Each structure stands twice: as structure tokens, then as C-alpha cells.
Amino acid sequence: MSQATAAHHPKVRRLEDKPLVSGEGQYVDDLKFSRPPLHMSVVRSVYAHARITKIDTSAASAMPGVVGVYTAADFVGKFAPFSWFPAQNIRPASRYPLAVDKVRFVGDPIAVVLAEDKYTARDALDLVEIEYEPLPVSPNLEAGLADNASLLYEENGTNIGYNTRTKAGDIEAAFAQAAHIIPVKLNNQRLAPVSLEARALVADYNPEQDLLTVWMSSQGVYRIREQVCEVLRLPLEKVRVIAPDCGGAFGIKGRLISEESLVCQLALELKRPVKWVEGRSENLVGAPQGRGQLHELELAVDADGRLLGLRGRILADLGAFLIGINTFMAARSAMMLPGVYNLPAIDIEVVGVLTNKVPIFSYRGAGRPEPAYSIERLIEAAAHKLGLDPAEMRRRNFIPPDIFPYKTLTNLVYDSGNYPVMLEKALAAADYTGWRKKQVEQPERCLGIGIGAFVEVAAGPVTVATPGLPPGENMQAHLSPEGKIELISGVTTNGQSHMTSQAFIVAGQFGLKSEDITVRMGDTNLPVYGVGTFGSRNTALAGSAALLTSQSLREKIIAAAADLLEAAPVDLEIVDGGVQIKGLPTRRLSFEEIGAATGGLSATGNFNPDGATYPSGAHIAVVEIDRETGDIKILKYVAVDDAGKILMPTLAEGQVAGSLAQGIAQALYEEVVYDENGQLITGTLMDYALPTADMLPNYESYFQETPSPLNPLGAKGIGESGCIGGPPAVVNAVLDALRHQGVAADELNLDMPLRPEKIWKAFR
What we know:
Elements lengths: L16 H5 L16 E7 L5 E7 L1 H4 L4 E6 L30 E2 L5 E7 L2 H8 L3 E6 L6 H5 L14 E9 L2 H6 L3 E9 L11 E7 L4 E6 L4 H12 L6 E4 L15 H13 L3 E4 L2 H7 L6 E9 L5 E13 L9 H8 L9 E9 L14 H18 L3 H6 L10 E2 L5 E2 L4 H12 L1 H10 L5 E9 L17 E7 L5 E5 L8 H13 L6 E4 L17 H28 L6 E3 L3 E4 L2 E7 H8 L2 E7 L8 E10 L6 E11 L6 H20 L31 E4 L17 H20 L4 H4 L7 H8 L1
Parallel strand pairs: 1-12, 10-11, 14-15, 20-21, 27-28
Antiparallel strand pairs: 1-5, 2-4, 2-6, 3-5, 7-15, 8-13, 9-10, 9-12, 13-14, 16-17, 18-26, 19-20, 19-25, 22-23, 23-24, 26-27
Helix pairs in contact: 9-10, 10-18, 14-15, 15-16, 17-18
């Protein structure tokens, strides 16, 4: 439930729902083609690290129905290596779609089979014979950094993929004058994104048009097109990307990776449609994973509990190669470590380590949950050390609300916020004082209360665009000759109701209902551009572009109506799908009449902000622990989120619910586990603890609206809040319960996921 859902915030039905709930959705696997596609399956490494000494594809190639079996040797010179985000001190770890000479993780693609049907393609995998020369494995951070480490890339002479340092303020003085120094060593474990629909695409090349069309479950068709062109060395005009319905993404569908590149290249070569739909086990072993950071930090505080400085290092488990932003996420974590607090000094080293695991990539939150978890664990531990209430510890260190925009030590500029009010609202909603009283009065119950206060970064400026269009989010709006309003959007949706929210924004300019607006998106043939769906950016950026574009069309409609009615534009108003002279409803033209008279009207719009927005939140969890079993029950969970102006509370609440499911699951259940040989232990959903509905609590969601000054909607973004606030709130609650039972929680170094056996052992 939400405090924000009130009369001035009407509930609006999602436009996307009807086809999806009636079974009429069109996912990649549902698409029909005039020419049946060839089906691709992938031969994957069974070793974490080994040289490939022989590949024999003859038996698989001879199998009836198999069209071809391909290895890296078949694609020499045809692919450019995958690119990565520029960062300091990068040591190249180039990657092509198929392993060349050696494999570097279990699941590493070695060969692909193409067949007339998917069953033959999968059966043929077993006939591809591969001989390996096993190599020593670097399965984790410690092994990867050891003096005698097995090197993933011998030419680099190290497994360090990159390193950076963030330093500001007088860190030496801060620790010299500290009354207390609080150390932590915290692991943000690897997570499997596990979207409902795994990765999927079909590529088809039309030689007459010299056009490659790609239907892909993705987060951004324009960026996917750019990456197809980059890897296959094609001009933009030779590639079209279309996004059908998408069953979730959470980050890993934001770029082209190995398998997708192969589908596109094979379609080009064979001039037939090629299809690949990833299976669930394949997804768990071969798709990029999230998180994977180890934080070794020390916090300096004075005798009154005020923060003086933070130092330490972040070790980032990159996996087997560099791709996309896995060179950047830990560096962003370092920049975000101050969180919502006024921190005078910081010194953080970031070391990205290559390991024999599937690569890390962006996963919901991407570099923000990790620092929020660490700073909130430190704040809680410092409060305990000083004998302060954790809420009071935060009050003493919040960034004051009267100094925004606030520039952090790490050169981030927070646009707006009011952290003290946000916390007090959460404390009141959770009955914090009442639970503290119960904790004392009912010692037989193992009760704990935890706080997770955070700030994140979202909706930053865009620096790229389709040639001929300005950078940023681009839109077109049209009034058809029939009087219908249409929005052409650069957004790609993968479940967050982008069509609904943009229709709602446009409808508000014309006195219409959302269902009266037609929204087209998810196709690079549309004459617009959008950077993609990630980082809680849609409402602030694309929503602002939709607003500005529809306002421009509104002005054109009023100007046209003024000519037709022989009136001044200032004397006209839009009411109920038409334009009338103010106070004279009989002097009126419908949109249909205006469209017919003008032959239709069009407007274009663009929005690119001057800076990023910084949503924030204060989450509180109340837990009760069973001493005999270690089971943790969340009795109450309150989320207060400041996402700026909330346009559609129902959609915002849905985003909070989804991200909370993932954040609480990280705190209590989920973890990707590899053994000492680099073998994946959690390779099925019988082993990877994806939570079911009965494992998650009811929650209360409230909004605090501190508008952003950086966009006309005042929006900030909310899609990742639960992933960021959930883990520290829940873990702090569990540790608080243990402390009140006399368990030395800090000394035990308990960490996520807090499964029952960990808690059971802690009591003993």
C-alpha cells in the first residue's frame, strides 16, 4: 500500500496488460516467419580453465537435420572484439564470440550447431568431441590475486583487469583524530539475474535490401543496433533491430554478448533466419551475472558519532573477460560510498580481478547496492560501538537538506533530497519506537530492527544518438488526419509499463485518456532515438521528452485551430479532445476536424539533462528469529522512497515491489556458488535459491516527493530502490536481533545471504 495513492494521483490501467494476460503477447519464441528459421545451440566448456587441443565436429555435422557446426576457426577476421567502458589502468582482456585456443569459464561457448529444428540442434551438441588440456584455476578473488595465480591472459602478466583510486579530503588526519575505527569485510555475492524470459533473438538477412533484421528480447534497440554494427563491422543503415514483448531483463539484455553475435553473423552468411532461445540451465551457466564485490573498509568516527573518514579497497570479481560496464561498476561503487552522509575524507582503491567464472555485467542497481550495503553496515556497527541508537547515528551525519545541490567528495552532484524527513517518515510508519520497546519488554522473542538509508544515481545525460539526431531521448508526436494522437518513442520496454506512462503524460496535454493515445516504440526503423531502458531513467528522460514533444504538438494544434476559428491562440483551450474558445463551448473544433482540415500535424522533441538525478530512500525492516532453526521472519517492512515527482503511483509501487523481491532475496537467499575448480554449484533452480512468493514479506510503500530541478517532470527514478535499500535494512535487522540476544554479531562477520544455518551456528 502507498501513501501516495490519493485523489490527485488517479489509478491508470496498464496499456500493456490486455495482450499479455490474454495470451496474445508476442515474445521472440512466438514469432512466425515465412521461412522457418534455423535453430542454434551452443557447445559449452565443461572446464573452468583449459587449452583446447582438438575439436571434432564430423559426427555432429553428419547428423540428419544438422546444417552446420561452427567453431572459432570459421569466424577468423569476421568479428571485432567486444568493447568495454573506458576506465583507468585497463589491461586488455579481449573477447570474441567463441573461445579461441582456450576456455576461461565453465559454460564458455566453444562451438555452435545449426539445425532445422531445436531438438536436433540440441541432440547434436553431444556429438561434438572436444579434447582439453586442463589448466590451474583462479576461481575467486583470492586465487586470482595470489603470487602464483593461474593467469587468464598470460600476455598481461597479471589477473588484475584494471585498478583505480578515489581519494579526497585529509584521510590521514581523519584517522589520526578518530575516537573509533570501525573495520568491515563485506561480500556482495554474485547473483543470477534470472529474468522470466531468458535471452532470445532471431536474425534474418534480406540480400535484396542488403538488410539484417534482428528481433531480440532487449532493453534498447538503438544501442543493440550500434553493437551489432560494431562487432560485425556493418554500417548502421544495414541493420534493423525490433524488440517484441520482453519477459524481464534486469541488465543482462542491455548489450550484445557472445551468442547473439553468432546468430547475426550466421544469418548474414547463410541468408536464412537463425534463432536462438536460451534454456534456463544454459542461462544460469552462461549468462552474465551481477554484483561480485568484496569491500574491505574502515570508518573513522569521533566520540560523538560523527563521520571523519572512510578508507579501504574494493575488489571486483570481473569474471573471465572485460565487457560493457564491468570495468566501471566497482569504480562507481567507490564514488557512491559516501551515500547520504556528510563525509569529510575518503580513500578507496578499486581492483578489478579476472577470475575463471562467467563475466559480471550490470544487474538491477549496477554498482549502487554494493556501496549502500557497506556504508549502512558501517553506520550500524559504529552506532553499536558508541552506544547510540542507529537512527540517531544517521541523524547526526545526514547531508543537510538546505545545501542541495550537494557536491560529494567523489565529484558527484546530488540534485535534491531531504534525508532527515525521509528517515523520520519511515520511522513513524514502521513504529520504530514501539518495536524498540517490544525488544526490551519481550526478551524471549528474538526481535531486530534494521535501517537502510541510501542514495543512488539515475537518469544521466546521453552522449550518443542516431546520426542526424541530437543526443538524448528523441520523440515525435502526430495528430493524424483522422484526429488521432500518436507518439513515436525511442524507448524500449521490458516490463516497466513505459507505454502506459508515456501515453499518460501525452494524454494530459490533450484532455484525453491514456488509451486514446497510440504509442509506438521498440523498432530502429522509427525515426527517433533512445539510449535504452536501464538505470531508472525512463520517466525522467523519456517522459520529459514525451512531455516536451506533446507540448509542441499542442501548440501547433491550438495555432491551427486559431486560424480555423478566427481567434487568438491565447483565447483557446483544449477540452475533451477538441479546441474551443474559452467560455464558448459552441465555438469548438474536434481533433478530427482539425486533423482533416490540416492534413495532420507533427512535432518533434528532444530531452537531454545537464546532470544525473539522485533518488534516495529510507527502508526499515523488523525481523524475528527462531533460535532453534535460525529461520528469519520479516514481521514488518517499510519503504519510503524519494523518486522526485511521482506521476503514476501504481507503476511506482510495482517497481518498488519487484526490486524489493530481489533485494530481500539477496539478503536472505540468493547466491551464485562456484567450487575450488571453478565448477558452478548453483546451476539449476533446485540449487539457486530463487525466492517464491511465500518467502517474501508484505511491505508498506510510501513516497516523499523532492522534485529534481533537472527535468520538467521533476522525476528522479525508482526502479532499483528495493535492490539498494533492501539488503542493508534486512541484514542490519538480523544483526540487531543477534546483538540484543548477546551474540557477538560484528565479530562473527556474518554476511549475505543470511541463510538459517548461518544464524543457527551464530547462536551456538
